[in-house]
């Protein structure tokens, strides 16, 4: 049993304010982390959509460029 002189400390207003501030900071950190995660996820998704949309034309351009390089090489070396 606890001795008769032991007292349970009652929380003060200062404790309540400190607790509320800590909860606000924790909430802000979590909210920021979630916001950054969602934003980055959306940015990655959009960039992959852009790559998928532009890839066929880039492949065609690379193929035509390489074909013209081969043709010019053949023209200069196979005369």
What does this protein structure show overall?
0% of the residues are buried. It is built from one helix and no strands. The chain has one helix spanning 13-77. It is 82% helix and 0% strand. The protein is rod-shaped and about 100 Å long. It is an all-alpha fold.
Q: Give the terminus-to-terminus CA distance.
A: 108 Å
* DSSP summary, beta strand count: 0
Compute the CA-based radius of gyration.
33 Å
What portion of the residues fall into strands of 2 or more residues? under 5%
Order of helices and strands: H
Helix amount: over 70%
The rough form would be described as rod-shaped
Sheet having the most strands = none
- Structural class from helices and strands? mainly alpha
Keywords: Membrane, Transmembrane, Transmembrane helix
What would the keywords be for this entry?
single chain, mainly alpha, 1 helix
